[in-house]
Specification:
1 helix; 3-stranded antiparallel beta sheet; alpha+beta; 3 strands; 20% helix; elongated
Length: 49
């Protein structure tokens, strides 16, 4: 199973979550709140045929 959430390692913060069967991972040398907000704002759009 997959666990969503935020973790940090030194100055690097990482947030992961599942969006429409895709695992999205956001990482950066920014506050954990920022990576969590970016990961939470991502959506999956399908192309129109």
């Amino acid at each position: 199973s997959y666990s969503e959430g935020v973790m940090s390692s030194g100055a690097l913060n990482v947030a992961s979550r599942v969006v429409d069967n895709f695992v999205v991972t956001v990482m950066g040398g920014v506050p954990g709140k920022t990576v969590k907000q970016v990961a939470g704002a991502l959506v999956h759009h399908t192309r129109a045929q």
